[in-house]
Write a structure and sequence with these properties.
about 300 residues; mainly alpha; about 75% helix
């Protein structure tokens, strides 16, 4: 299945994205890093918008950005609001939590998407896929126990609450993506994936520009910001991961519940980087949690075939 292979490629790119994000946020102010992420992402996609609007060079290719009116852009703007809210919570959580905790928690995000997919799109999973989901749920509860060794209480830690909020909004975004790009006969809007990805980045940059001005007025002289090239790579890896993800969803047989679950296998990359680059603690018990996530991914792969 092509769409499933694309989902795993997106997961690999997301792992590098999370690592660059953690490096960029280490001892750094969140708001300017997030603004620069939206800025560089917009710069990547702006040429495709301009070329599509002013020439025939990209017509018929996967990089073509369709010209749409407000009837379509209002849906893309809503996606921008959902994603930016998720990112804001996630960035603050990423700054204050170990990467080896953030990754496994994010890996359980598709369980939330699964529930929504079952309720909204009528998707059905086979036995192999259900087993994969169960392993993901178990891994979340085991991680909450092992994290207490680092003084992180899932029930009372504000950054864990932020991370869960980001996961909920991310799941909502995944369901909304399916609605935006699913064929009309399946109840979707059948929007061009490149159109959605290009414009939602621009809308996010505009909104973050306003937030950045408020931050600079209120906190800019007290919170420290330092430039890092990792900030650029955040946008590069994210745009590549999202492009592959949107293209996978645009394929007729794609199931949002499975694509979202597989994308979270990015935890493999981020976990390894957390151990090697950040020398994070309590790796043995976290590795067991990670193993459960991996086993879940294997069952999903088998079920997908």
């Amino acid at each position: 299945m092509v769409w499933l292979s694309l989902a795993f490629l997106s997961a690999l790119l997301l792992g590098f994205y999370d690592t660059c994000k953690k490096k960029s946020l280490d001892g750094n102010a969140v708001i300017p890093v997030l603004f620069l992420n939206t800025l560089f992402s917009s710069v990547i996609f702006l040429p495709f918008i301009l070329l599509s609007a002013n020439s025939h060079l990209l017509e018929g290719s996967m990089f073509y950005v369709q010209s749409q009116g407000w009837e379509v852009h209002k849906y893309i703007l809503l996606k921008s609001c959902i994603v930016l809210s998720s990112w804001t919570l996630g960035y603050f959580a990423m700054k204050h939590l170990p990467l080896t905790i953030v990754g496994p928690i994010n890996a359980t995000r598709p369980v939330m998407t699964l529930i929504g997919a079952l309720l909204l799109f009528g998707e059905r999973l086979n036995v192999w896929q259900w087993v994969g989901v169960v392993f993901a749920i178990i891994s979340f509860f085991m991680l909450s126990r092992s994290s207490k060794k680092e003084g992180i209480d899932f029930k009372h830690n504000i950054w864990i609450i932020f991370l869960v909020g980001a996961a909920l909004l991310g799941a909502a975004s995944g369901l909304y993506d399916k609605y935006l790009m699913a064929p009309a006969d399946n109840g979707g809007l059948a929007l061009n994936s490149m159109t959605v990805q290009s414009w939602y980045n621009l809308y996010q940059m505009a909104m973050m520009g306003i937030v950045l001005l408020i931050w600079w007025w209120k906190r800019g002289k007290t919170e420290r910001f330092r430039w890092s090239w990792y900030i650029v790579f955040i946008s590069v890896f994210l745009c590549a991961a999202d492009f592959v993800y949107f293209y996978a969803l645009s394929l007729p047989a794609a199931m949002i519940s499975i694509v979202s679950m597989v994308r979270r296998s990015s935890v493999i990359v981020s976990f390894m980087c957390g151990a090697l680059l950040f020398h994070e603690k309590n790796l043995k018990s976290k590795a067991i949690d990670l193993l459960l996530v991996l086993v879940g991914m294997v069952f999903l792969w088998i079920g997908g075939h």
